[in-house]
Amino acid sequence: MSYQVMDERFMLNEEPLEGASEALSNAKVLVYTTMGATEARRKYGVGAQSIAESIPFAVWEDGMGMYHVDFEALVPVLV
Asked: Which 3 state secondary structure label does DSSP give 18?
């Protein structure tokens, strides 16, 4: 289980997230299999490029230009 300190007494520069539902409406929710997978198990995911602009803290690009989604960072937006 993963825990993070979320006590507001330790938060700096806090501001409410305006338009969270609109940001999520841009998300391209997918059912997919990965390229080169040895099994055809389907997974659920979100296209990183579809949320990169509206939820930038949840997306990062690695040195090879591949985009990744931090799903844990999406949880507060979903709430």
From this structure: coil
